[in-house]
Amino acid sequence: MHDRLVAIEHIVAQHRHEHGALLSILEEVQRTSEHNYLSKDELAHVARSLTLPLADVYSVATFYAFFNLKPQGEHVITVCRGTACHTRGSKPLLEKVLTYLGISLEDDGSATTADCRFTVHTVACFGQCALAPVVSVDGVIHSRITEKQLLMLIDALAGKKEAVV
Amino acid sequence: MDSNQVHVTIDGNELDVAQGTKIIDACNLVGIHLPSLCYLKDISSYGSCGVCVVEVEGAKRLVRSCMQSVQNNMVIHTHTQRVLAARKTNVELLLANHEMTCTTCERNLNCELQELAQQMGIRDQRFVKTRKKPLALDLTSLSLVRNPNACILCNRCVEVCRSMQSVSAIQMTRRGLSTQVATFAELGLGNSVCTNCGQCSLVCPTAAITEKSSEQEVLDALADPNLVVLVQTAPAIRVGLGEAMGMEEGALVTGKMVSALRTMGFDRVFDTQFSADLTIMEEGYELIERIQKGGTLPMITSCSPGWIKFIETFYPEQTDHLSTCKSPQQMFGAIAKTYYAEKMGLDPATIKVVSIMPCTAKKFEAGRNEMDSSHAYWQHKGVVGEDEHFCDVDYVLTTRELARMLKRLGINFASLQESQFDDPLGESTGSAVIFAASGGVMEAALRTAYEKLTGNSLENLEFSALRERKGIREATLQIGDLACKVAVTNTLGNARVLLDQIKDGKSEYAFIEVMTCPDGCIGGGGQSIPSHAEQRSKRIESIYEEDRGKQSRKSHENPSIQTLYASFLTEPLSEVSHHLLHTHYTKRSAWDY
Ligand code: SF4
Ligand code: SF4
Ligand code: SF4
Ligand code: FES
Ligand code: FES
Known about the structure:
Number of helices of chain A: 7
CATH superfamily of the largest domain in chain A: Glutaredoxin
Strand order of the largest sheet of chain A: 2-3-1-4-5
CATH topology of the largest domain in chain A: Glutaredoxin
CATH architecture of the largest domain in chain A: 3-Layer(aba) Sandwich
Oligomer: heterodimer
Largest sheet of chain B: 5 strands, mixed
Strand content of chain A: 5-15%
Helix content of chain A: 40-55%
Number of domains of chain B: 3
Structural class of chain B: alpha/beta
Strand order of the largest sheet of chain B: 2-1-5-3-4
CATH topology of the largest domain in chain B: Rossmann fold
Structural class of chain A: alpha+beta
CATH class of the largest domain in chain A: Alpha Beta
Largest sheet of chain A: 5 strands, mixed
Largest interface: A-B, 15 and 20 residues
Distance between the termini of chain B: 57 Å
Strand content of chain B: 5-15%
Shape of chain A: elongated
Number of strands of chain A: 5
Bound molecules: iron/sulfur cluster, FE2/S2 (inorganic) cluster
């Protein structure tokens, strides 16, 4: 932890006089973090280094969807839960993935495996309704995907088998 | 017309008002009170509720009167059909996610949201809820409870905490439909920099922030025949309780309050003013000692627990400036369970001390680990064991909680006879009364310090410079050949200014009084709601009236205090005093959570 705090101080020192310093600092702290998120201790250290109230820093960190306040998986799977995808089975698809990974969605609509390999999110619509159901894996859109294909993809990312999509 | 004035017409009334006046305040000048759920004059202007809208000729949309200032020749209509319909819709929107539990709610009949819903004739929840399940209550604090389900996101609490108190314990977090007032990392007020001052609970228009209630515990204690239940009342209660019981603003109700407490079943009705006189003795001597022996100066008062947590958190390196005196509430508890118990032959473990305070932070103070010196006293004497632990003060009730209990017990307050406090812990002087108003502790201390240091009698007891209604006041008192420069302040934002002076080595004062709340305890976070500047002025007037009417106005002349020293404490700053009446502080940090 100590090294990380020093690293944060370094990031703060680099940006503190910039316009909109807090956002750049939080962005860089998140980017350089191990699991792509801002931990409570890191946020507190940013606040301390800038002599800002903790609640103010928290307010900013929670306002922007870009910032994660929980550890994120190495691989991000986003399942569309829009109407079109729903009618084409996105609910069982989502449930299958969650069961396969042994996790369940939390109040904020996401879930991450304990080893931080995978995070599952939902989205309201990808705007690709004609190709439902739609799932994105690490930013790549997969359309008309089946349960079997998705699980194979996950296996591939987990290093178990070759992908066959 | 003065160039700084503008001419406006409000519902046909023509008037000139100062440029920059908000429309809502201009309306007040012609006797039109516009509803407002988020605006707080001079404190918060957030424009979130939309109930203050008016129609301005030439403007296409309705105007939020709390956000816009008057302009020359503006023609304003405050109650057109369009305005009334918009206001109603806006209240309905606020009610969409509201729990609507008025009958069981702390703020029932004293809630701005409820009042507006009534006024507008709202009879159902027209809009669908966007919140699927209720949000968790914040029960982490010893002083306050936050119920985010009752919150209408008006931002008043955030702004009071930030601008008046310079604490920033809470903020608006997340966004859109998920917006919530929260502490850092949602750890809760009890795990935050919150000073427990309760100013947020005073300005909250709903029940989203209320005191943590001890009403039931006190009723249980009163019903237990094996207990001796003592009550002490802070100076500010006698000018706050009447308001909470429906009497006029600032009503002075000392005698009725005593009768009411007796009717409730308290075994003895005592006065925190007794221990306020005691505080002055200890603190006055402490000041003299610091001046004479070169101790840390300026010395700063220590009777306001919100302030104590503030300095511990934000200026931990300066806690040596604090007087080591406990607050009057805590001195009372320590004396009641030692001296008084001994005198009356009571088993200290069966005594319960209940305090009636204008303050939510007093609940936190009573719960501090070190506030158990009476137990240590008896343990040292071998009378009680370590496992039979008790605190000096058992329960703290705010003015509002006491008022609720009186109503619940059916006590018709206004028609009660007046009666007197019990002896000896009920006797007090005018110096103790004025603890309730900002500047009072300073005045009281100067009255005693002057006489003790010079041996002369002080002619003019009232220090008008210390009574001015401004954030930071100062005065210099010539005591013999010593010119003693003092300062008085209230609210933590102002206290910060004086602490920064000390930090920069620029403080010229020997003694500083700090009160956490605006105008001192009479504006405390546990007082009757509302608690605006006008109500507070009336409470202050009543306090000074009570001081003038007291037989003695100097703490050292209180006969019961003299007896206490002669028969128990020996002298101020004695060893017994140190054990029972003095304390130490905790270094905290604003960032370690
Ligand atoms: S906060 Fe006001 S409107 Fe809401 S339940 Fe309580 S009294 Fe009723
Ligand atoms: S009690 Fe005082 S310090 Fe705590 S959140 Fe409320 S206003 Fe801020
Ligand atoms: S808690 Fe009360 S004062 Fe704070 S935003 Fe909510 S309704 Fe307003
Ligand atoms: S509903 Fe899934 S892409 Fe539109
Ligand atoms: S009082 Fe004006 S918008 Fe709330």
